[in-house]
């Protein structure tokens, strides 16, 4: 009788273990929960100034909102406006709807990007595009997107651009047309 009870107990225990194992195998595996990346901090109506080695103002960025992501190594801006200085005077202002600043002093600007020459007596007044990469250290700009270059009495349409703001040089990758406007004096 004890042997029969022992066998009954072993069969029931085995059946319970087998049932539990089958139940666990039938349960759908839970997918890892994707977490939304949350910024380390957010600032509103931000102004940040940069100075050269002599203590002179060399650049300034203003933005409606800034979100800092330490894990990604980037700062995301809403409505950024970068002002670059030359000889203590504002020289260029680059603005857009969105921007991302990377730790290597590279900025990617997107949506309604506009580069304004703040000196009134220059040939090129403004550059417009939808996306632009800017290296702050060297003041180099580059894009592969369509561009519009506005100057004194002309408009240049093209595809792709490389510009060195410090050297005042501009290179259009593909020229698509120029419109000249005659001004009556």
TrEMBL record:
Record Pfam families: LptC (PF06835)
InterPro entries linked: LipoPS_assembly_LptC-rel, LPS_export_LptC, LptC
Coiled-coil ranges (or none): none
Keyword match ATP-binding: no
Membrane topology: Single-pass membrane protein
HAMAP family: LPS_assembly_LptC (MF_01915)
Keywords annotated in UniProt: Cell inner membrane, Cell membrane, Membrane, Transmembrane, Transmembrane helix
UniProt similarity note: Belongs to the LptC family.
Domain of life where this protein originates: Bacteria
Full protein name: Lipopolysaccharide export system protein LptC
Localization annotation: Cell inner membrane
């Amino acid at each position: 009788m004890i042997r029969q009870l022992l066998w009954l107990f072993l069969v029931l225990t085995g059946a319970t273990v087998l049932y539990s194992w089958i139940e666990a195998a039938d349960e759908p595996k839970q997918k890892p929960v994707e977490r939304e990346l949350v910024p380390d901090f957010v600032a509103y109506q931000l102004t940040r100034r940069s100075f050269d080695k002599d203590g002179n103002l060399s650049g300034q960025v203003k933005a409606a909102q800034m979100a800092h992501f330490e894990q990604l190594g980037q700062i995301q801006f809403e409505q950024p406006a970068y002002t670059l200085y030359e000889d203590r005077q504002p020289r260029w202002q680059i603005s857009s709807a969105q921007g991302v600043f990377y730790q290597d002093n590279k900025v990617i600007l997107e949506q309604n990007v506009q580069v304004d020459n703040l000196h009134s007596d220059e040939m090129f007044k403004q550059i417009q595009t939808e996306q632009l990469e800017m290296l702050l250290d060297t003041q180099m700009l580059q894009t592969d997107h369509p561009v519009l270059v506005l100057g004194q009495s002309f408009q240049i349409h093209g595809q792709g651009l490389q510009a060195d703001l410090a050297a005042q040089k501009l290179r259009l990758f593909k020229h698509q047309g120029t419109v000249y406007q005659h001004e009556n004096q």
